[in-house]
């Protein structure tokens, strides 16, 4: 697969491009994302679904700009897919041929099931959960992909969409009709004879806009949408109120942004109805969708469209990109496990923290790559944003803080205030802080010593093959949690 | 010169190492900094100045650890210098020979004038100012280097030092004697027959500690020591009070940190006396000193120990390290100038902002290299810390904010609150925000178009060779400052 790959997705409202760069076999990162609201479907409905001249011209120009960007970034592979906008237009071939002829680009029109499947591939690889149904509400259709234990069981596309509902029902003040139309369509899901999960992964602009509003309402501490999770049952009546907003001022008061005024009522109505009908408990917001699914389907074509077990793309990509010494990083990961295990009788932390301590230890030196001075502070926001895929928000915050707290003194209550609701207790963070700091202290001379740790009551005995004034004085300076004392052997 | 170079500096109190990595001919960045308080001179004074066994052993062990780190970082060149600790000890050769024999390391004992000179080289290349005297207060001596218009005119070392003053006078409560001793030594400066600048660049632990205290007292918004500047006359009486502190609680109440308790009174006393006697107006804090001077003297050995004109090591190093497309960066720099110049009749900004707009435009894409999502936010702290050398704090903040504000909407009062005292007016920042945003909007397709700008009254006419829906709609979305309107030709 090419090192740099471009994925373009032509929707009825927006055209979007992502440019992704591979850093190793399965790891990649985003290097460009461009969106253009070309509204290629504008005027279609009044013209038997036919694409109109001016919207086609806009889309053509933006595609040309997209290709410029793609070339400037040395992308060698471009995959361009189009969904309902082109699959429903009788004259789509006019546009497709012109693009093929003038720009040399093949547009692949994909069917609804495929579109749903791509959403499932993206969500199952790039989100932490493994059993859920993706819901991707678009202008003309909504895609569902049922994922169980990480495996996609079924994908389906229904003719429910914000623009469709708006034109057919909302513009005529017929919400009852809208409801019946949606219920009627949803029957196809129940006919699938499949177990419906209690968790929705929400994809697409409408659902993301709703998540943003919920986030703001809850004063959620982390400004990251991908992975943001909320209780569906607690928000259904809120979504209902949005769907019944009288005017734009009303929408504004709910926290809706201007560029979402046109279809948010329909989006909220459709989503609310789906959540109710499918008896969903929890919504996980996805920042990834069709484009990432297309990319992953290509990248993982020889492995059933799934990353290998225990592979984390964010961690791998950060390690790849930030010139981290592989041997040091592996050593620190292993040593973290030893320290965690030796101290387990005292700290009694859940084993998930062992994994997070290992990740924090491996990623710690990114801070120095970025900027040696204040490296831990600089690393904080960076790690918080860099662990973008396949991490719970709570895990991200723990890893970022553990790195920030790798210093002599233990964190205090005021140090964790900003993200308190996402963090475990101060006690847990103090242990994490101590363990990562000890990890670096024993290896401060980068000699990767074979250290052994023994716990004797509340004394940690450290057998240190690289004893020296530098190492010992740094271990001496470490503040220890609770009643722990350290003895160097 | 080697790609990775290690500089070790053996002082009477601490041994310090920096490992620096070259990224291009004159650009470099710090990849490791390690300090060990080995106190090699401990017990010297009671033993005719002879180095004692245990302190030598500590220093030896730490040197060994330093060399481990240096090797792990693939450093190919090590320069180790020692100052007063070894030059004053009759038996220094015992230590030097053992290190040479067992560790293969040559310790170069440098005289006081050379030590002062290295401070001058560091300050004149890595600070914004060009006429000043460096003052580096150590345990046994204080070094002065007189720099005029960027040229080192004279370097001198005096036998004034915190430990010396403490043992000879402060321990005997004889401040009058201390004062006379210092005045007597300072005569050598007046005998130099040199014009004494009004500005001190303060080097070394004691002066840095004093700067930190002043910073905290003033609630200075930026947590960066290097380049922090204050009015000397306003702090002299404060330093006097520190020098007369009765006990550690007293020191603590002034904001002194525990590890500085032992010599801060003497440090404050010496510095205060120097500031008074030399009639200094302003103090600029330096985070760099002998080690960086040693490095630069080697790096710049063929150019009179000075960077070329208009070379900025921080900007170059960031451009080198963060995979920035050189052509794009050069284009954006040039285009920034065109935009600034075309709009000059309206914004009337000082030309220094032209330079800062160019730097911000060139460095902007670092944000994307770091993390595509929230790239401008991530870049902010990073740029603030990354422009570590040769920048006024006010300039750093302007560049970092200009990058952060490269978006559709103009900043408001609340956006600049945190660093208000270091920033120009909101009006200036709104113009900077608009100009950088326009710069990126015209090149959003990365085609580096040859754009021309004409100002007609309050309308900016843009002749755009790469007109397209994407570019035009993005320019349309830009919020403009004051009454400016935009017309695309």
UniProtKB/TrEMBL annotation, chains A, B:
Keyword Transport: no
InterPro entries: ATPase_NBD (IPR043129), GppA/Ppx_hydrolase (IPR050273), Ppx_GppA_N (IPR003695), PyroPPase_GppA_Ppx (IPR030673)
Record keywords: Hydrolase
CDD domains named in the record: ASKHA_NBD_HpPPX-GppA-like
Record-linked Gene3D superfamilies: 3.30.420.40, Exopolyphosphatase. Domain 2 (3.30.420.150), Hypothetical protein af1432 (1.10.3210.10)
Molecular functions per Gene Ontology: pyrophosphatase activity
Entry keyword annotation includes Electron transport: no
Protein name: Guanosine polyphosphate pyrophosphohydrolase
């Amino acid at each position: 697969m090419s090192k740099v790959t471009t994925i373009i997705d032509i929707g009825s409202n927006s055209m979007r491009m992502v440019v992704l760069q591979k850093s190793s076999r399965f790891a990649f990162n985003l290097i460009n994302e461009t969106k253009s609201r070309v509204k290629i479907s504008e005027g279609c409905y009044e013209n038997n679904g036919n694409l109109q001249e001016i919207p086609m011209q806009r889309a053509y120009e933006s595609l040309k700009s997209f290709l410029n960007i793609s070339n400037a970034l040395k992308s060698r592979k471009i995959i361009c897919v189009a969904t309902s906008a082109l699959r429903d237009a009788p004259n789509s071939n006019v546009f497709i041929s012109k693009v093929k002829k003038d720009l040399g680009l093949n547009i692949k029109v994909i069917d609804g099931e495929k579109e749903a499947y791509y959403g499932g591939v993206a969500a199952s690889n790039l989100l932490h959960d493994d059993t859920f149904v993706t819901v991707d509400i678009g202008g003309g259709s909504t895609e569902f992909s049922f994922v169980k234990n990480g495996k996609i069981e079924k994908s389906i596309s229904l003719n429910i969409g914000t623009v469709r509902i708006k034109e057919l029902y909302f513009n005529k003040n017929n919400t009852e009709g809208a409801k019946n139309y949606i219920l009627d369509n949803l029957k196809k899901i129940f006919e699938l004879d499949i177990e419906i999960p209690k968790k929705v992964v929400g994809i697409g602009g409408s659902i993301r806009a709703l998540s943003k509003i919920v986030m703001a309402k809850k004063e959620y501490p982390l400004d990251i949408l991908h992975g943001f999770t909320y209780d569906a049952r607690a928000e259904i009546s809120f979504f209902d109120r949005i769907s019944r907003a009288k005017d734009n001022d009303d929408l504004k008061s709910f926290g809706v942004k201007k560029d979402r005024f046109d279809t948010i009522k329909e989006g909220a109505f459709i989503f609310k109805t789906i959540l109710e009908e499918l008896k969903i408990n929890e919504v996980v917001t996805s920042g990834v969708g069709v484009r990432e699914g297309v990319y992953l389907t290509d990248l993982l074509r020889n492995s059933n469209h799934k990353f290998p077990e225990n592979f984390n793309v964010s961690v791998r990509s950060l390690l790849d990109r930030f010139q981290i010494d592989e041997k040091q990083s592996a050593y620190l990961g292993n040593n973290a496990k030893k320290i965690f295990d030796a101290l387990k009788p005292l700290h009694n932390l859940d084993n998930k923290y062992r994994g997070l301590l290992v990740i924090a230890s491996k990623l710690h030196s990114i801070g120095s790559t970025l900027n040696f001075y204040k490296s831990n502070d600089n690393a904080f926001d960076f790690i918080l944003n860099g662990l973008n895929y396949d991490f719970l928000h709570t895990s991200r915050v723990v890893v970022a803080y553990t790195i920030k707290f790798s210093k002599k003194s233990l964190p205090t209550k005021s140090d964790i205030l900003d993200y308190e609701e996402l963090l475990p207790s101060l006690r847990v963070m103090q242990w994490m802080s101590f363990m990562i700091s000890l990890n670096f202290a024993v290896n401060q001379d980068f000699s990767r010593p074979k250290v052994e740790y023994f716990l004797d009551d509340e004394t940690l005995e450290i057998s240190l093959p690289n004893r020296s004034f530098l190492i010992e004085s740094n271990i001496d300076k470490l503040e220890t949690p609770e009643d722990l004392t350290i003895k160097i052997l």
